[in-house]
Amino acid sequence: MSLEISTLPPPPSIPPTTLHMSGLLVDVYGLSSLDPSTTHVSCLWLHHPRTRNKGYMADIAARCIGAWNERDNTKGRGLVALAFDQRNHGGRLVEEKANGAWREGNARHAVDMFGGVRGMVVDQGLLLDLVEGYLFPDGAIKIDQHLALGVSLGGHSVWQLMFADPRVTAGVVIVGCPDYMNLLTDRARLSKLATYSTADSGASFLGSADFPPSLVASCANFDPKGIFFGPAAVPTGHAAPDAAVRHVFRERLRGKKFLLCSGGDDKLVPPRCGEAFVGWFKKAAGEWFREERVEVDERVYAGVGHAFSAEMVVDAVRFVVEVVGGAENAGGEEGRAKI
């Protein structure tokens, strides 16, 4: 998973403070550079890619913190960025083979990867519960806004986190997919698994030994497309969705902001795997449920593969600064987000 930033100026030097939080080592960026006048803090949670670790997120953390700190007037609001290792990654590594795909000899790829995605969301929820007590135990500074940014595997987990936790109100998804069932079915086809049949275009793959029934059920409970439609196809009609769909928008998504960044030439997480759901999701947010104020900004970068490209970095930094700038009691000129 490449980070293509050679055309960008170097980020500011913002070393992390590594803290133990509820059994996890968390790198916290920007803590030592908070202005003495800070009364409220926004937290940007960073989810790294598969086979990487929390250190991968140092560059984007520094760029976001630096851009926010350069604003003329933040009116007492600070920004910190936090990164921790995904399960079975970095300092939490248990079995390296489990991080591999089918082509790399991991027969349990679908279950293992979903476990990582879901595990990251569970771990994230616990940290949201406790982070203020670790960073500001005297209560003098309040944490009142949470954003998340994830890359690849971390992009999948940010998609799920945005549906799972009302406290996370904005998410940046870099080369992630909201339709785990379709993504893995397509990957099974490309991997030429025996459980993928061209006779039914892979329909029987879901529920097979390589994608067990329990995993199908988990996707229906936790993965965005599965939450709305289960294993069924995303509808292509123009009729407004039913009350159950409205309930999800109202109870899980109201007021949330999404920035979705995909590489047009990505072969590992092809945009086509999430295209049907994202198209439906944008229509639902922009037409059927406008009153829920869900904002979806989708960007597909031509010529970019499975990478966190320079253009994505620029757009992600700008999005983070704008969202934090829109938080209660944040002010000053928006200006141009610097990287």
TrEMBL record:
Coiled coil: none annotated. Transmembrane segments: none annotated. InterPro entries: AB_hydrolase_fold, FrsA_esterase. SUPFAM superfamilies: alpha/beta-Hydrolases (SSF53474). This is Alpha/Beta hydrolase protein. It comes from Staphylotrichum tortipilum.
